[in-house]
Amino acid sequence: MTSSTKTLRVLVVDDHELTRCTLQLALSLQSCIGSVEVANNGKEAISKVHKYKPDVVIMDLHMPVMDGWSASSAIKTEYPHIKIVAYSAADGGKAQAISNGAIIDAFCDKGACTRSLLEAIKSVA
């Protein structure tokens, strides 16, 4: 991103509070990111997308209430320009994300470092 590029609005969706809070803090410290909102499940994510219109959604794939696949599909149907980075520790998560490429724009394993997640965000933004 160049200095003339606008800062990104990011939505972090994860059912684990510590993950949400940690990512919100880490991402909010980045100069390329202007705001970071959070949601704890896919249903709440859809509501937050309507309200905040993020540029990028960091989406856990396995959550209660509504999983990341269903939420991502709903978001992409209404807002195809919003980029979605699947963020999962599930076995086979990356393979599923690749096979569902029309829904997911990038994948980052939860075991990866913060820099890897930032690179995934920048690659789709």
TrEMBL record:
Q: Which GO terms describe its biological process?
A: phosphorelay signal transduction system
Any one Pfam family here would be Response_reg
Check the UniProt entry and state the signal peptide residues, or none. none
InterPro entries on file: CheY-like_superfamily, NreC/VraR/RcsB-like_REC, Sig_transdc_resp-reg_receiver, ST_Response_Regulator
What positions are modified (4-aspartylphosphate)?
60
CDD domains registered for this protein in UniProt: REC_NarL-like
Q: Which domain of life is it from?
A: Bacteria
Xref: SMART domains: REC
Q: Where is the Response regulatory domain?
A: 9-125
Q: Which UniProt keywords apply?
A: Phosphoprotein
> Matching PANTHER family, A to Z?
TWO-COMPONENT RESPONSE REGULATOR (PTHR43228), TWO-COMPONENT RESPONSE REGULATOR ARR22 (PTHR43228:SF1)
Name the chain's protein.
Response regulator transcription factor
